[in-house]
Amino acid sequence: MYAIIRTGGKQYKVSEGDILKVEKLDAEVGSEITFDDVLAVSDGDLKAGDEVKGATVKAEVLEQGRFKKVIVMRYKPKTGYHKKNGHRQPFTKVRITKVSA
User: Fold this and answer.
1) How far is residue 100's CA from residue 28's CA, in Å, rounded to a whole number?
2) How many domains does the chain have?
3) Domain that holds residue 10
4) Strand order in the sheet with 19-23
5) Using an 8 Å Cβ cutoff, are 12 and 77 in contact?
6) pLDDT in tens, 70-81
7) What DSSP state is assigned to residue 69?
8) Neighbouring C-alpha atoms within 13 Å toward the C-beta of 85
9) Which of 63, 70, 83, 97 to pair with 30, CA 20 to 30 A apart?
10) Do 48 and 38 form a contact (C-beta atoms < 8 A)?
11) CA pair distance 11, 51, nearest whole angstrom
């Protein structure tokens, strides 16, 4: 059984036991969260739509962290202009515990 959920502006295909990193969620490590924005659920037959009624995905928060640094370099030739900047995006690591339709 799998589901497609939407969180943080992205869509993820998940099933029970999956571990994934999503955009930062406001939850403590060890707590349980529920994803209500389920786009599709499949347990042999596919139920899809804008939002599947009554479908939820429960997950356990494993870790809060930040991804590796991404270097942003701006450069304009012949003017001596160059600027270096870095960015680390925060994430939440979750384990999917239950998919219910």
Assistant:
1) 23
2) 1
3) 2-100
4) 19-23, 90-100, 56-66, 32-35
5) no
6) 999 999 999 999
7) -
8) 6
9) 70
10) no
11) 13
